[in-house]
């Protein structure tokens, strides 16, 4: 029997679904009084009277979220550190933005405030450029609800459409020198998350629900990284697309705390 990649994916999905189903059963049998994670919230919703959620939908949701929330942000952050390592001028400006925030902070012991977060102009340019070039989601699917005529082509009603964000993000008519990593290209541009020329987080009715969360997570990570640490690339960092973004040999960096004279560096594989 030939085991295709697709077949292996189906088997993997089956195994993952079985694990999630067991977890659901365990938690139903022994419900915790405190909601400790998202699964507990799903369970609570499932038990509400008149809910539209079924166990099958809940399990599907949990399965999708494993990819949607974990794989995406970790890939984006890895790409971000790689871009920073390859572009010292970008790192310099990012550091400057975050050092200014620290200098102006009234209470040196406070965490990042909402006002500080909203002031991270260059950080948002950097995040936009990272997700534009990273093209973490290589395809978005839609269904033609009615016949569509587009540039002389007809898409019959009911057909599946695959939108390809990389084709949009690397379009030289919209992005000058599209393969260059250039956060400054976003200067003065309103970034509301989605447009015809920027769809790293999708668009329309199925626009990524995690977009703002991702931006907060990335901005806070970058804030801590550039204000408290320095790092050195050890190995890896090669990028392949299969078609998703992958680092076949990982991306290994050595992180040291800023300001510490003698410190045993941690080696981190991203
Ligand atoms: C760099 C990080 C991320 C990227 C690049 C990304 C990208 C996307 C894209 C392209 C879509 C498809 C939208 C469409 O079909 O138009 C999507 C959907 C979705 N994303 Fe994200 N995402 C990220 C992070 C997250 C996070 C952190 C979460 C959850 C905490 C999340 C949850 C979802 C969900 C639930 C959907 C489905 C929305 C729906 O179908 O209505 N994503 N994401």
Automatic annotation (TrEMBL):
GO cellular component: membrane
Origin: domain of life: Eukaryota
Keyword Iron: yes
UniProt-listed InterPro entries: Cyt_P450, Cyt_P450_CS, Cyt_P450_E_grp-IV, Cyt_P450_sf
One GO BP annotation of this record: brassinosteroid biosynthetic process
Xref: Pfam families: p450
Membrane topology: Single-pass membrane protein
Molecular function via GO: heme binding; iron ion binding; monooxygenase activity; oxidoreductase activity, acting on paired donors, with incorporation or reduction of molecular oxygen
PROSITE patterns in the record: CYTOCHROME_P450 (PS00086)
Residues annotated as binding heme: 208
Keyword Cell inner membrane annotated: no
Alphabetic keyword roster: Heme, Iron, Membrane, Metal-binding, Monooxygenase, Oxidoreductase, Transmembrane, Transmembrane helix
Cellular compartment(s): Membrane
Cofactor(s) demanded: heme
Family stated for the protein in its record: Belongs to the cytochrome P450 family.
Protein name as catalogued: Cytochrome P450 family protein
């Amino acid at each position: 029997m030939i085991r295709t990649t697709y077949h292996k994916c189906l088997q993997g999905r089956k195994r993952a679904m079985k694990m999630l189903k067991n977890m659901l059963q365990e938690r139903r049998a022994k419900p915790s009084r405190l909601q400790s994670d998202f699964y507990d919230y799903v369970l609570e919703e499932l038990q509400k009277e008149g809910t539209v959620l079924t166990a099958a939908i809940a399990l599907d949701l949990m399965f999708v979220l494993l990819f949607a929330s974990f794989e995406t942000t970790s890939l984006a952050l890895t790409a971000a550190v790689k871009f920073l390592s390859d572009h010292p001028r970008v790192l310099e400006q990012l550091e400057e933005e975050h050092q200014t925030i620290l200098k102006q902070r009234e209470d040196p012991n406070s965490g990042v405030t909402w006002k500080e977060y909203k002031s991270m102009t260059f950080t948002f340019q950097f995040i936009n450029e990272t997700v534009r070039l990273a093209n973490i989601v290589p395809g978005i699917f839609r269904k033609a609800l009615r016949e569509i005529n587009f540039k002389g082509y007809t898409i019959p009603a009911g057909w599946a459409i695959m939108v390809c964000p990389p084709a949009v993000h690397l379009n030289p008519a919209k992005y000058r020198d599209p393969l260059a990593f250039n956060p400054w290209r976003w200067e003065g541009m309103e970034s509301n998350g989605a447009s015809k020329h920027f769809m790293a987080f999708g668009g329309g009715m199925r626009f990524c629900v995690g977009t703002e969360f991702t931006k907060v997570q990335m901005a806070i990570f970058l804030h801590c990284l550039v204000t408290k640490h320095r790092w050195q690339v050890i190995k890896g960092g090669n990028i392949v697309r299969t078609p998703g973004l992958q680092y076949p040999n990982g991306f290994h960096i050595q992180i040291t705390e800023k300001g510490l004279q003698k410190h045993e560096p941690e080696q981190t594989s991203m």
